[in-house]
Amino acid sequence: MKSAVENLNPTRVRLTVEVPFEELKPSLDAAYKKINQQVTVPGFRKGKIPARIIDQRFGRGAVLEEAVNEALPKFYTDAVNEGELNPLGQPEVDITELKDNELLTFTAEVDIRPAIEIPDYSGIEVTVDAVEVSDEDIDKSVEQLRERFATTSPVERAAAEGDIVVIDLEAKVDGEVLEDGVATGVTYTIGSGELLDGIDEAVTGLEAGGEATFTSELKGGSAQGKEAEVSVKVSEVKARELPELDDDFAQLASEFDTLEELRGDSRTRLERSKKFEQATQAQEKVLDALLELVEVPIPEKLLQDEINTRKHNLEHHQLGQMGLNLDSYLEMQGKTAEEFDAELKEQAEKGIRTQFVLDELVNKEQLSVGQEELTEHLMRRAQSSGMSPDQFAQAVVEGGQVPMLVGEVARGKALAVVVEAAKVVDDKGETVDLDDEEDETGETVEATSETAEEPAAAEAEAAEAPAESEEKQDKAES
């Protein structure tokens, strides 16, 4: 077999492959065997039909077509390896010549990873926010804890902001009650903004047994986006009572004996959290600076696939769970469809560039991933997915996603190398030491490529089998 590579552009090549006919013999024998098992010829036992009879009955061209389609994946893979290419996705295959007992020639066009030159990144310098915890921050943290220990009790007065009301709702559109527009016994905190627009004004001032009507645009359900007339009836009003901020509260809400000790612990936790945020900010800024240094051509098809995947995930998963569609989402965001598409393209481009650059860094720095590192990463991913580690691991293995996880860890290590080489200062001019920073849970910060917009579709694996040839055996010559 002979092969030649023609560079069509920095991200696409055309392979021209010539295969001597004798190299097709194993596939030709397999084709005769397969046809033998599929057809019946009077006078011959199944599986024992001579090749010449198959040629006479079904045509040599049918056998050649079966043999070529069976052999193409191997010849294509051999040509890719010979050319030391990193293909992305399925190739477009065209059989240009097929001479029986002489020669098979085909071409295969495929996107490839571009060649990337990683420049010296040791001069990268970024500025991040300084870690500052004010008394107001501590007050807010303690107040949030205090809110968690609030108690409620029924009151015989008009409802006010901050009160909890138990309500029944009925929504009508065009005078008709919606099938999914009735709810009873709903608990709602006035001012929380968790229900319909206009609900706060409607229930404020009502006592138990009071009723009101208001109009609101429905956020979900069968009439999503439509204006509805909503009737609300208050069945109960409850007041929230917060515990006193004293040592008794500290003992109730924590392991500390005094309020001062509780506030001190809040300061420590806030500082740890802000340091984690600072480290994440440093990673993002260093990555942005690195991408500015590197020219990365992007395959057009890969980019379009990535855009489509991101848009699909947003429309059919994220927004669907929120009861929104793309139009309502854009309206909430105050964006036009054109602005949304432009942002999506920018995010997809950054994700692909990030992966290409960090993967090249992995190779340049000869980084590897150990079993312990992979296990730790798997545990974190399982936690964020809401699955148990065993369930997540099983899903990863069954889905063939282990190489993807290895790639994520390796890219994280590559970014960590660049962050370590960079100079990071805060907005007060102080040098920031990112070694062994911990987040609010006490987990050590890990620099990962997830700080950037990772491709949702990632990159397609090299095709193990090229698409069926576009030019069939009408070029075959007997």
Automatic annotation (TrEMBL):
Keywords: Cell cycle, Cell division, Chaperone, Cytoplasm, Isomerase, Rotamase
Signal peptide positions (record): none
EC annotation from Swiss-Prot or TrEMBL: 5.2.1.8
Enzymatic class: isomerase
Compartments, as annotated in UniProt: Cytoplasm
GO molecular function, one term: peptidyl-prolyl cis-trans isomerase activity
Biased composition (Acidic residues): 432-443
UniProt key word Chaperone: yes
Biased composition (Basic and acidic residues): 469-478
Region (Disordered): 428-478
Catalytic reactions of this protein: [protein]-peptidylproline (omega=180) = [protein]-peptidylproline (omega=0)
Sequence ranges of Low complexity compositional bias: 444-466
InterPro entries, sorted: PPIase_dom_sf, PPIase_FKBP_dom, Trig_fac, Trigger_fac_C, Trigger_fac_C_sf, Trigger_fac_ribosome-bd_bac, Trigger_fac_ribosome-bd_sf, Trigger_fact/SurA_dom_sf
Pfam families linked to this entry: FKBP_C, Trigger_C, Trigger_N
Span of domain PPIase FKBP-type: 162-215
Superkingdom of origin organism: Bacteria
Stated role: Involved in protein export. Acts as a chaperone by maintaining the newly synthesized protein in an open conformation. Functions as a peptidyl-prolyl cis-trans isomerase.
NCBIfam families, A to Z: tig
HAMAP family assigned: Trigger_factor_Tig
Similarity-based family: Belongs to the FKBP-type PPIase family. Tig subfamily.
PANTHER family recorded: TRIGGER FACTOR CHAPERONE AND PEPTIDYL-PROLYL CIS/TRANS ISOMERASE, TRIGGER FACTOR-LIKE PROTEIN TIG, CHLOROPLASTIC
Name of the protein described by the UniProt record: Trigger factor
Source organism (scientific name): Streptomyces javensis
